[in-house]
Design brief:
This protein is 43% helix and 21% strand. The protein has a single domain, classed as Alpha-Beta Plaits (2-Layer Sandwich), CATH 3.30.70.270. It contains three helices and six strands; from the N terminus they run H-E-E-H-E-E-E-H-E.
Length: 109
């Protein structure tokens, strides 16, 4: 069932990605969602909330439904990093802040 949820999550994320966005599985149950052309933290927050809303819709499984609560870390170039590695690390740190605070998403800075 875990694999089915991961596949469904990937489908939901890619269905709503814009042409210039990139969605990839980072490992385990983590995904990267790279957005281009984000003008403000408010825009990033709106996208994070839309992603969360999509992921929180029930997953239909053979034995019933499963609802999961995502934790989303947001990092923005260049404030939170100027390289891919630095941005991923900042987003990962923000994701753990979200988990600890029982938030849906958190910003790196």
């Amino acid at each position: 069932m875990g694999d089915a949820v991961l596949q469904s999550t990937a489908e939901r994320l890619t269905q709503h990605a814009r042409d210039d966005d990139t969605v990839s599985r980072f490992g385990g149950d983590e995904f990267l969602y790279l957005l281009t052309e984000i003008d403000s933290y408010q825009d990033a927050a709106l996208v994070a909330q839309k992603i969360a809303d999509e992921i929180q819709r029930p997953f239909a499984l053979g034995v019933g439904e499963l609802i999961i609560k995502p934790s989303i870390g947001v990092a923005i170039f260049p404030r939170d990093g100027t390289t891919v590695g630095a941005l991923v690390k900042s987003a990962d740190t923000a994701m753990y802040k979200a988990k600890q605070g029982k938030l849906v998403y958190a910003f790196a800075s």
